[in-house]
Amino acid sequence: MKGPLFYAKILLFGEYGIIKDSKGLAIPYNAYRGGLKVSESLEGAAKKSNENLYKFYTHIANLKSDLISFNLEEFKTDLENGMYFDSSIPQGYGVGSSGALVASVYDKYADDKITVLENLTREKLLKLKKVFSLMESFFHGKSSGLDPLNSYLSLPILINSKENIEPAGIPSQKEGKGAVFLLDSEQIGETEPMVNIFMNKMKNEGFRKMLNEEFVTYTDACIEDFLHGNVTSLFGNVKNLSKVVLKNFKPMIPDAFHKVWEKGIKTNDYYLKLCGSGGGGYILGFTEDYQKAQESLKDYKLELVYRF
After folding, report:
1. How far apart are the first and last CA of the chain?
2. Which of 102, 134, 167 is the endpoint of a domain?
3. pTM, rounded to two decimals
4. Quick one: 132 and 47 in the same domain?
5. Same domain assignment for residues 87 and 154
6. 220 to each of 125, 149, 160, 164, 215, how far by Cα in Å?
7. What phi and psi values does residue 182 have, to the nearest 5 degrees?
């Protein structure tokens, strides 16, 4: 048995904001992928994956929902036969490792599944998102369901609000100097503690005001600029967003990167923002001149995501 592959995802804009109903834009990232496989002799990572899938199976078997049912018998038999999730997606890096796994399990075992080939109405997208949210809550405690949705559809997704999501057309890549890139913090980030910090901050009126008036405003503007190819305006808004995040989301930025973050804003060589919940993993970078950013960040590992 070898299942189809599901890709990593990158939330370009909207981290934390989408918890509070701002816009978001997620794109598939094909450099990393995963799929279900069966092996008769499980060892190492495959054995651990099989054990985790058993726990996930229990979670799914206990879901009390009219939205979805699964072929649990087949799922269990495959697990007993040595099924595991074979993945190159780094865990705790904010690129959707659990999302790809959830998408794989839904694809293989969901009854009456919604497929990518049918006409994806808003109702179908929302239903998928809700199902994925229930499934992925096993990994994060609370999940928007967006990561698995992005991985499952392998399409860019525009989040207008919790109840309004749609596939998005993003401008095709150009062979320009500008780029979106990933910067490897070489630390693992954990989603749940970061979200808890954010929820505590939300109790503060000043933080809520900043979120609505600055963070969400710049995020929404970045998405508009990106989707319409307004590159000049985009970099202005990304710079403002980078400043707001540095000032208000410090706990989510690994300590070793506070100065690197500041340097980008001062020199305009690049601008950094959170990739996923932060706390480690990847940091997302935007630059008008990728070569200049590479020189400026020569001590770090960078990965190219998108060219302007």
Report:
1. 40
2. 167
3. 0.89
4. yes
5. yes
6. 21, 21, 9, 14, 9
7. -105, 135
* Tens digits of pLDDT across the chain (308 residues): 567 999 999 999 998 888 777 899 999 999 999 999 999 899 999 999 999 999 999 999 999 899 999 999 999 999 999 999 999 999 888 888 899 999 999 999 999 999 988 888 889 999 999 999 999 999 877 778 888 999 999 999 999 988 889 999 888 888 889 999 999 999 988 888 888 899 999 999 999 999 999 999 999 999 999 999 999 999 999 999 999 999 999 999 999 999 999 999 999 999 999 998 899 999 999 999 999 999 999 999 999 999 98
For the chain, how many residues are written? 308
Same domain, 216 and 301: yes
Range of the domain at 299: 179-307
Q: Out of 167, 190, 222, pick the residue that ends a domain.
A: 167
**Same domain, residue pair 132 and 242:** no
Regarding whether 153 and 84 lie in a shared domain, the answer is yes
Question: How many structural domains comprise the chain?
Answer: 2
Cα 224 to Cα 17, 76, 171, 218, 286: the distances in Å are 15, 45, 12, 10, 16
Q: What is the CA radius of gyration of the chain?
A: 19
